[in-house]
Design brief:
This protein has 267 residues and is mainly alpha-helical. It has 11 helices and no strands.
Length: 267
């Protein structure tokens, strides 16, 4: 039956099975490639991957660990860019949804920015923000603001007018309605939008680091790819995916804590 839920145990087993199949598939492809070329590094064996992990976890000639240096640089850029984008996206969306003049003023530019491919606009960011931290932060924040603002705006528009009228009838002020009614309806959908923005934000950052970065995950992936050290590139990609997964999981937990009514209604 469509949409029929399955037990928790079965869901976990299916999840584990999908990961096992992925690992088995990679092992088979790598084995077949090494039968053709034993020295192949494009699809490294598990032993080669282990050597790659040692390479970026142990100190280099300068005494630096690549993983530590890259994680700190990429993490700082991503954290600042996401934080700024979330605050501005939520604030703009609330203003557009609650105030008609602001909606009429901001809807055209927000709709236009939402259609601009951020990676294609790299040159524009270089011109206006240089190649330092400001550029990374601007690219991430401007990249996610339109989607977040539109999500909040549409969530407000979906609130039944009767709900707002009842709040005003009970004597609530405009500010109280915004906090007690609008915010509670918008917050869970905003968290969902943030979860969907994590992937694009990481893509924007890695693309910028690949072009102008001198440290960070994108820089390291580009450098090691040129050297065909895919035993470093693949683990780095896995680390990025793992970080995104943990961030997404943390947001789901946060949503369940602060918006229990939304979780219950979704079941």
């Amino acid at each position: 039956m469509i949409g029929r839920p399955i037990s928790r145990t079965k869901a976990v087993l299916l999840s584990v099975l999908s990961v096992i199949l992925l690992l088995v598939g990679y092992t088979w492809v790598s084995h077949e490639q090494h039968k053709i070329n034993p020295d192949d590094t494009t699809i490294p064996s598990w032993g080669q991957l282990a050597e790659g992990v040692k390479k970026f976890t142990q100190p280099d000639r300068k005494g630096e660990r690549w993983l530590v240096e890259d994680s700190l640089a990429t993490g700082e850029r991503l954290a600042i860019g996401l934080a700024l984008g979330l605050v501005l996206g939520f604030f703009i969306g609330m203003l557009m949804g609650c105030l008609a003049p602001v909606e009429a003023f901001l809807q055209p530019p927000i709709s236009l920015l939402a259609k601009v491919p951020q990676t294609a606009a790299l040159a524009v960011y270089f011109v206006f923000f240089g190649t330092g931290m400001e550029m990374y932060v601007a690219m991430i924040s401007f990249g996610i603001i339109p989607a977040l603002a539109v999500t909040v705006y549409l969530a407000i528009k979906d609130i039944p007018a009767e709900m707002l009228d009842k709040a005003y009838t009970l004597g609530a002020s405009a500010f109280e309605v915004a906090i007690e009614v609008v915010l509670k309806q918008v917050l869970p959908k905003f968290i969902d939008a943030v979860r969907l923005s994590i992937g694009p934000a990481i893509v924007f950052l890695i693309a910028a680091e690949m072009v102008v970065g001198d440290v960070g995950f994108g820089y390291r992936i580009r450098l090691q790819f040129k050297l065909t050290n895919m035993n470093v590139v693949y683990p780095y990609l896995v680390l990025l995916a793992g970080f995104g997964f943990l961030l997404d999981y943390g947001l789901r937990v946060l949503q369940a804590k602060v918006c229990p009514w939304y979780q219950n209604g979704a079941k």
